[in-house]
Amino acid sequence: MTRKDNRIPPSVVRRLTRYLAHIQTLRAGRQEWVSSQDLADSLGLTSSTVRQDLSHLDFSGISKRGYELEGLETILARILGADTVWKVVVIGAGNLGRALATHQDFARRGYKICGIFDADAGKVGTKVASLTVRPMNRLPAFVSRRLVDIGVIAVPAAAAQRVADLLILSGIRGILNLTLTHVVTPGRVPIVDARIVASLQELSHAIRAQPPTPENPSSPSS
Amino acid sequence: MTRKDNRIPPSVVRRLTRYLAHIQTLRAGRQEWVSSQDLADSLGLTSSTVRQDLSHLDFSGISKRGYELEGLETILARILGADTVWKVVVIGAGNLGRALATHQDFARRGYKICGIFDADAGKVGTKVASLTVRPMNRLPAFVSRRLVDIGVIAVPAAAAQRVADLLILSGIRGILNLTLTHVVTPGRVPIVDARIVASLQELSHAIRAQPPTPENPSSPSS
DNA sequence: TAGATTGTTAATCGATTAACAATC
DNA sequence: TAGATTGTTAATCGATTAACAATC
């Protein structure tokens, strides 16, 4: 019996993305079934957590065999939106914005970058892969006419909130914020932060918190 | 009285990065003090959480005035390693790797990219900003001789574990993993995942989970 | 069949919030 | 002084883990 309960806790959703990635790797190796224990071992979790997580899905495992990978991938893909193509615009044609617009991984995973915008007149008109950088004042019409789903904010931190407001006004459905600033949105427009600098700071903290060893002095060599 | 307890829970560390970023913004605007309530409002938290978090620091606020920003920034910077320069190598000279190596934000925040490596002979020798792409077989000596602190993995997912193993063998102190694969490290080498595709999937899920409205159909237009 | 593995309930653990005395 | 705001304790909430009957 499976809970069809629609609301999945964020902590679980975050792990579902990891299950999906791992299952795709397993399937690429022609594996057809996996147990909660194997999944847990591969991802550094407990089998209890895995079974608890998967019980949120409308999908059952089978005693003694585990979970059938093809079915599990299908349902995870559906839940995480990996079963359709999402239209994405990138705001900011700096290094990060250009990298995202070019990075193959996104297109391959169903995130189709269909426009890139920048406030800098010097950048407008330049090419990024097959896209031409558009001016900011074209953003609202572009988003609403093409029914763009997701906006990625890759501008300097100081401009992040302004860009978010404009995206929301244009009818965007969700925002990925790559700046390290906190951005406020009305509840109906979800926002996820992917703050790489913050990740580096977490890492720096973890390095410092390591019990220092003779060959591992506790501050960076600079 | 402040707990000088050395171990700060990861959930708190993650918020500390946000406090630091916000405090830097406030200070840039010449503000000198902030209350837990104001901080909470700006970051979408409760004042209780803020006070609880800051109690892990060796730093006290003052009744009726709040927290003195200069002192708070200093101590947060120390805890998050933002008070020194960290030496970073980027593995993978694809779009993402090149963007990171070029992105000004990292250098500005104390993460100095001092080398970029790639397994592809066609990329070796090409320039990325002021750096020359080096071959993988030079990685171990480079890391150990220059006492590089952090390795950033920006290679295809299939190669991620192999690169991590090599970095660890070379004596790296921490790893930032940008692939969506899970990478295993021995406990002494901390690893942080900054999985951008996973963030997009979280976002896609959140968009779908939105209560659908007439003008907001529940699947992406494709 | 016997043994492995699920799904689920109950127990534990950790994180967040509420409340309030202390204090500037 | 009176009022605002801290630091901390206790209460609540949520997430993880343990345990085990059901079952293939």
Features:
homodimer; 222 residues; alpha/beta; seven-stranded mixed beta sheet; two-stranded antiparallel ribbon; 9 helices; 9 strands; DNA-binding
Give a brief rundown of this model.
Two copies of one chain form a homodimer. By secondary structure, the first copy, chain A, is α/β, with parallel strands linked by helices.
- Return Rg of chain A in Å: 21 Å
Name the helicity range of chain A: 40-55%
Low-confidence stretches of chain A: none
The outline of chain A comes out as globular
Q: What structural class should be given to the helix and strand makeup of chain A?
A: alpha/beta
Give structural notes:
- 2 copies of one chain form a homodimer.
- Chain A is an alpha/beta fold.
- The first copy, chain A, has helices at residues 10-28, 36-43, 47-54, 69-79, 95-102, 104-108, 139-146, 160-169, 196-209; strands at residues 33-34, 67-68, 86-91, 111-118, 127-128, 131-135, 150-153, 174-177, 191-193.
- Chain A has a 7-stranded mixed β-sheet. Chain A has a two-stranded antiparallel ribbon with strand order 1-2.
- In chain A, strand 7 (150-153), helix 8 and strand 8 form a beta-alpha-beta unit.
- In chain A, helix 1 crosses helix 4 and helix 2 packs across helix 3 (47-54).
- The radius of gyration of chain A is 21 Å and the shape is globular.
- The mean pLDDT of chain A is 92.
- At the A-B interface, helix 1, helix 5, helix 6, strand 8 and strand 9 of A face helix 1, helix 5, helix 6, strand 8 and strand 9 of B.
- The structure holds a DNA duplex (24 and 24 nucleotides).
